[in-house]
Structure formats: C-alpha cells, structure tokens
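Cross-posted from the bioinformatics board.
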Amino acid sequence: MPEISISDTRNLIRDLKQAYRFDVSRYSLNHLRFRLDKFLKKHYLKYPDVLGARIAEEPSLFQDLLREIETPSTELFRDPEMWKMLANEIIPLLVKEHGQVSIELPQCVGGNELFSLCILITNSGFSDNTEVKASFLSNFSMERVKSGSLNPASLELGMENYKHTGQNVPLNRFIKNRGGEYFIECEALNNVMFFIRDLHGTIPQHNPHLILFRNKFMEYTLEYSRQLSDQLINALQTGGFIVIGHKEHLPGNSPSIKMYTKSERIYRKTV
Amino acid sequence: MMMEKLIIVGGSAGSFKVVSNMLAALKPNPRFSYIICLHRLRNVRSGFVEALSINSGVPLLEPNDKDPVKPGHAYLAPANYHLMPDFGYTLSLSVDSPVNHSRPSIDVCMETAAEALQDKAIGILLSGANSDGARGMHKIHEKGGLTIIQDPEDCEIGVMPSSVLGLFKPDYVLSANKIINFICHL
C-alpha cells in the first residue's frame, strides 16, 4: 500500500533522471508509488523525501530499484483459455505459415509467463521450430528466471490453472525440488535467449511473429503506452500476433492491427 | 453534472448478499459513482459481475485498465487485479503482489482512492474474515472522507469491520439495512 506521497514520488522522478538518466515518469503515479513503498520497506528506509538522494549516491540501490519497479508476472498459466488458444491455434498456425517462429517476451520479470510458454512449446513438440527471446530491465531478474526459480506462493494457483489449459502432460514433470526450492526444467527453456533491454527508446533489433506483453501496459502512463504500443506493433512481422492482458486496451489506433480474439485480447498484424 | 463523491464498498465473507441488496436499492444518480471491491477467487473470471448485475439499479461494470469513471455507474474490481481509482477519475488495474493475501485488496483500492480523491471518497466496509480494508478506511478518514462500517454484530463475520474499530472511530457503525438506506438518501 502506498505510503510515499505524491510530492516525494515527483522528487524521486527528478533525482533519478539527473543521476542515472533513467526516466521513471513513464510509470503511472499509482503504480510507481506502490512499488516505491515496497522498496522503502525492503530497505528499511524511513524517509521517502531523501530516497532520491540515497539512490543517486548508491548505484547498487539503483540496480535493486530497477528490479522492484518492473511488473511481476503473477502465476503460471494465468488465464488458461489464452494459453489453450496459444497452444492449439496460434503457435501451430505460425509454425505452419513460417516454419521457424520467433517469439518475444519484452520486460520479462518473475518468469511465470516465460515458463508457461516454454512448457507449452515443449509439450507441443515445437522446441525446434521456435526461438524465444526474453528481455529484462534488471540483471538480477534475468539471472533468477534463467535458473528456472519458481515462487512457491503462487504455485498452487498455477497448478490449478494448468488443469484448464487442456495439456495432457502432468505439470509435475517440469517442476523440480532442489534443496527445498522449486525450479522449472524443460527443453524449451534451455533454448531461450536472455538479454537486458530497456524498451524505452530502444529500436527493435529483430521482428518477432508473436509478442507476449500481458498486463504490462497498465503500469505506464497512457501517453507512454501509446508510444510503446506503436513500437511493438512496428516490430511485429505482418501476420504476427501480440497478446496483452484481458483487462487492457491496446493503446493507440494502429490501422495495421486487428482484434483476433476479444476475450483474450489477442491481436494480429494484418499489413 | 459532475460526480461529487466516489463510494468505495469493501467486503469479503458474508458481504455478497449485502452488496447485492445495496445495488438493487440504488437509483442512477450522476452525483455518485460506486466501486465494489470484494474478495473473490483469483482464477474465476466470469459469473460474479453477471450475478450482481441481475437486480442492480445502476449499471455495473468490470472495468478495463484506464477506463474512465462514469457518473452514476458502479464498478466491480476484477478477479486477480488490484483496482486503483486514479487521478482524473480513471481506474487503474495492477497485478502487483497480493496485499493481505488479497488481489483485489480493499486496502489498496481505498488508500489510492483517498490519496486521489481526498474528501470526495466515501468508504464502506462490510462483513469479512480478515483485516483488509481497515487501513484503507483509516486513510479515507485521514483525508477527510466519510467512513461507515457494518456493525460487527450485524455481520456474518465481523473481523473486517472490527479491525477498523481497532484503528480509529469511523463516522458511522450501522446495520446492513441502515447502510443501504443511508447511501440511498445521500
């Protein structure tokens, strides 16, 4: 719950811009305050008014802020109908049309979204036909996801979701307990290309056939969401798909994108 | 006419019937909008808003992220998202971690509403089995908004409103029927 005031948040935006040229004004105020409050509590920082100055002095604190500021993915196979559609329709269609399919997950954080995708790809036998790229804002998040580390708090819900995806292979096959911690192990995860990238102002280096960007627009201001949406749609190959959260609007008004499935907010680039 | 007040209703176990009766009693009034933030199953997306809409006297919607708050409308916090009334009368959704084991969390909803709307927020907390909502009600109170709790004696489970009494003295402690009557005559 946000304890940090709006004026403290605005001061922090200014300080971070000056110290690191990192512009957090792209995040909506409510989202930013929510995360900053979590950050303050984590580091036992009692004075939000000096937070910006502290972070400016300590680069390691800034790195940790980058980790905290990213959108988490909540649990494995959130919205099972979307995963079912991806497994039964979208990915097979793309493989049929292109042979080799490029899939991108920008601003990946907790890993659940990536793990879910990799399990589906492994189950469907498309590991050799797909190239998955996952980008991160912070190195810490990337290394954690690379290791396959699972958050046990959301595992039960993830397992319940999986039952509704129509997959025949038991989820347990992909979950390993090592020293009391849970990890995902699957063929497709071994082939993922991990890299650090801040989407802000970045020119895409490649053109994916499928972009998963669920529940991420919601953390940004409307203005920035529009820019980001244009950027992602421009990068997408013609005939490719972009999936956003089922409670999000695709910002902007690109004529090249058409709704493919309204209930799951799957869009297709037509021209 | 501009919306004058945003009424945020929070509840958990034992609150569904009260909310259903409340919505049935409401008449469209452009001076007010309503947010209903109830604890619900995280992985069941449909059925809740449909059930509450059946007898509702005002349009009840499950908002998408950044939807505007329309006068005279009621909004139900979607499953597995926090709902945050934003500046400029829009509704933000979030998938941040559960608060008080809840997403949507009533505290998150009420605290952000209090910060954004100040004394234009009215908080109502109903029956429930944990303390989610107590801090949010306190924040509304601190910002000058009106606070009403269901009398714990009148609740199926009174833990939630009792938690408010442990923090501060709300403006009103009323039975479910009196709360409904109160908001219908605002």
